[in-house]
Amino acid sequence: MTRVVVIGAGPAGLAAAKAASGSGAEVVLVDEGERVGGQFWRHHSDFTDPRLQHQLGRFAAVREGIENVRVLTSTSVWRVETGTPLRVHVLTGPADAAGRVGETLEADAVVVATGAHDRVLPVPGWTLPGVTSAGAAQAMAKRDALTLGERTVVAGAGPFLLPVAQSIALLGGEVAEVVEAASIGTIVRGWGARAWELTSAAGKAGELGSYVASLVRHRTPYRFGSAVTRIHGTDAVEAVTVQRIDPQWRPIPGTERTVECDSVALGHGFTPRLEAAIQFGCDISADRFVRVDSQQLTSIAGVYAAGEITGIGGADAALAEGEIAGLAAAGIPGADLRYRSPLAARRRMRAFAARLDVHGIRPGWTAWLQDDTVVCRCENVRKATLDEYADTSSRGMRLATRAGLGACQGRTCGRSVADILGGSGFDHRPVLSSVRIGELAALVSPTECEDDRHTPETEFAGGS
Question: What's the predicted TM-score (pTM) here?
Answer without folding.
Answer: 0.87
